[in-house]
Amino acid sequence: MQPNKLTPGYNLMWESSRMMLPEHKQVLRAHEKELNKQTKPLLDEQQITLFSEQINEAFHFRQAIKVKVFDPFETVYRIGEVKQIDGQKQRIKLDTNDGIEWILFQDILNVSIM
Amino acid sequence: MSKVIFLVDMQSFYASIEKAANPSYQNKPLIVSGDPERRSGIILAACPLAKQSGIKTAEALWEAKNKCPEAVVVRPRMQLYIDVSYQITKILEQFTDCIEVYSIDEQFIDVTGSQNLFGTPQQIAKKIQQAIFEDVGIKARVGIGPNKVLAKMACDAFAKKSPDEIFQLNQDNLAEKLWPLPIGELFGVGRRMEKHLEKMGLHTIGNLANHPVKWLQKRWGINGELLWRTANGIDESPVTPSTHQEQKAVGHHMTLPRDYQKLDEIKVIILELAEEVARRARTHHYIGHTVSVQVKGSDFQVRTGFNRQKKLASPTHFDMDIYQVALQLFQKHWDGLPVRGIGITLSQLEKAEIHQLSLFDDPLEKIKLNETMDVIYQKYGPTAIVRASSLMTAGQAHIRAGKIGGHDKGEGL
């Protein structure tokens, strides 16, 4: 059944009676988004060594890997084949279904070989 | 254990902000008024001093000036009011994380879990008033109740009149305090409903509360039962912080500077509204299935106008699609009488990333054109490109760009 203004636990009674400027709502939405912002976790050095070994292995054996990439607002995974490891610019080149993607070493949170 | 809900309400919000921003107005009567040259030239807010001389909100500026010629008149600064309201939300966040903003000057908060930290409801209310006054210089009133509807009525009917501007309403003092009040003071009762209820012999809130609910249900359905519940202080809706997250509709409404009577002029406005609605839908990546048109006639006594909607064959967020449907609806239902205001709403929204493409028209060109326009809007503002029709005398696009809610935007914080 569709909830109505009397349904317990819903807020329809108040949502149908209020006056909110769209510009005001937008400020509140941005605030809510900011509240859920994640900070980048600090990784253990041995963990980082392990990641680099996995990436190297995948590169040499042309295996696809799944990389968890840091993003403040959502959980992002990238899946693809490692095409290049760029030590100069501290990044890897990943060939994914959506095209070529460069991922910075510092944004890598997890690596698994597919 | 029953909950402790507050409604925190700002005293004459816009006027208080203007007084706090400009201390030399502190002891003078002050009114915030829209542009007297235009329809919006009404009193938006009056400080308590101005209200003493009989000024009421929503009356015309000249009426107010007659009553109190020495009053300071200031233009609204809507962006500033939004920013201050948001600042108050952040102050309230120091007391609880359960906040539902109800309007620009009213916010519900649930402090049930904050009592161990901050004390009794009365003490918390005092602390909140203090924090808001110290930070933004505005007096807050607090209504306290076990649910939102009692908090709201505690605030509106009592806190505003009590000396410490705090009032608690609950099931124990409901009959004694709330029930003797006239029915018009009940939350949700407008002037029309007031007359209907009085005709039924229900003159006080108590009369309604003790009236058999089935008769109210029979006459007004859900709304009848809702009023009965309100009179009995029953409300099971939780304080909902996420209430503004989900967008249900994108709409825009405009009160015209004068009554428009010619179809050609009205077409210009419908197109501008369709553009605005489409642009906002696109920026938030929504696509909508239903277009509705709201028209307000110019006569206040006899209510003319209509509100009609149409479901589209395939969802859209393009201005011309919305315009065509809106114009069709308007032409079908318009009685030819002068029009005071028009609104267009796009509803039944879904995310734009996933939707069924139409078989028959090729949207690619439209998509590319609109993407380009969106980039220009984003970089140079909403009036960087307008349709030529907006440059005709009937057009409002340039005037509207500097406004929020139909009033001057002004500078923010």
UniProtKB/TrEMBL annotation, chain A:
Domain of life (superkingdom): Bacteria
UniProt-listed InterPro entries: YolD (IPR014962)
Pfam family, one: YolD
Protein name in UniProt: YolD-like family protein
Origin species: Paraliobacillus quinghaiensis
UniProtKB/TrEMBL annotation, chain B:
GO MF assignments: damaged DNA binding; DNA-directed DNA polymerase activity; magnesium ion binding
One Pfam family in the UniProt entry: IMS_HHH_1
Chief location category: cytoplasm
EC number: 2.7.7.7
GO CC terms in record: cytosol
Cofactor: Mg(2+)
Annotated active site: E106
Domain UmuC: from-to ranges: 5-190
Catalysed reactions listed for this entry: DNA(n) + a 2'-deoxyribonucleoside 5'-triphosphate = DNA(n+1) + diphosphate
Binding site for Mg(2+): D9, D105
Protein family (similarity comment): Belongs to the DNA polymerase type-Y family.
HAMAP family membership: DNApol_IV
Subunit structure: Monomer.
Functional note: Poorly processive, error-prone DNA polymerase involved in untargeted mutagenesis. Copies undamaged DNA at stalled replication forks, which arise in vivo from mismatched or misaligned primer ends. These misaligned primers can be extended by PolIV. Exhibits no 3'-5' exonuclease (proofreading) activity. May be involved in translesional synthesis, in conjunction with the beta clamp from PolIII.
NCBIfam families: PRK02406.1 (NF002677), PRK03103.1 (NF002848)
Descriptive protein name: DNA polymerase IV
Lineage per the UniProt record: Bacteria, Bacillati, Bacillota, Bacilli, Bacillales
Gene field: dinB2
